[in-house]
């Protein structure tokens, strides 16, 4: 079911968005060669507890997961791109790390993702990450009242294709509100002018993810991590966005402004 949020409800969602943004900023800046994925998960868990937030992941068990997730953040490395299950792995020089994080505060959810390279980055990895960020900004730019879901999808796909990447439509963006995953589905490619009309109060996660050399994914033996079928690297960028009469409100906007287009509305916590 698709639900539209009132202006007061959108304001109530801002603390969750701010916490998710700040946590991803801190974790991404701190991630370095020699860090263990389980330690990153533990730090995220500590921050959640300190803030009085609630993880959206620990008990999460959708049809595409083999068991309850059991951790508080997705840590996908190199060929891994989505739903990366934290495990005993030490980051090496040049690893591409994607962090996907969602929590609930006062019953309202925010969801966001960021990709970084630890140590010395390969230019191809930086280009892949940059493309997901530009695709995210393009998708958000199209997230205005009166447009349709297809306009967001087409904007994402156009950026990906121009950069020489293919898109996978099995997993994409989604509704966000009282739960992490809801309607509508927001594919990472599509045709403009198609699909649901965007109305003020609709809140969605827009999340381009790309693989370097393929659009095919496999699920790893841990039952959760989705990785490229050919071993090529993946990157993932995501923001939670509300449709408003004034433009797209990026609830998980970070201070670095990455993925946020010039027509976006920023939360009060960033604008003072």
UniProtKB/TrEMBL annotation:
Signal peptide: none annotated. GO terms for biological process: proteolysis. Transmembrane segments: none annotated. Its EC number is 3.4.11.18. Pfam families: Peptidase_M24. One of its GO terms (molecular function) is metal ion binding. GO terms for cellular component: cytosol. Binds 2 divalent metal cations per subunit. Has a high-affinity and a low affinity metal-binding site. The true nature of the physiological cofactor is under debate. The enzyme is active with cobalt, zinc, manganese or divalent iron ions. Most likely, methionine aminopeptidases function as mononuclear Fe(2+)-metalloproteases under physiological conditions, and the catalytically relevant metal-binding site has been assigned to the histidine-containing high-affinity site. Removes the N-terminal methionine from nascent proteins. The N-terminal methionine is often cleaved when the second residue in the primary sequence is small and uncharged (Met-Ala-, Cys, Gly, Pro, Ser, Thr, or Val). Requires deformylation of the N(alpha)-formylated initiator methionine before it can be hydrolyzed. Monomer. This is Methionine aminopeptidase. The lineage of its organism: Bacteria, Bacillati, Actinomycetota, Actinomycetes, Propionibacteriales. The gene is map.
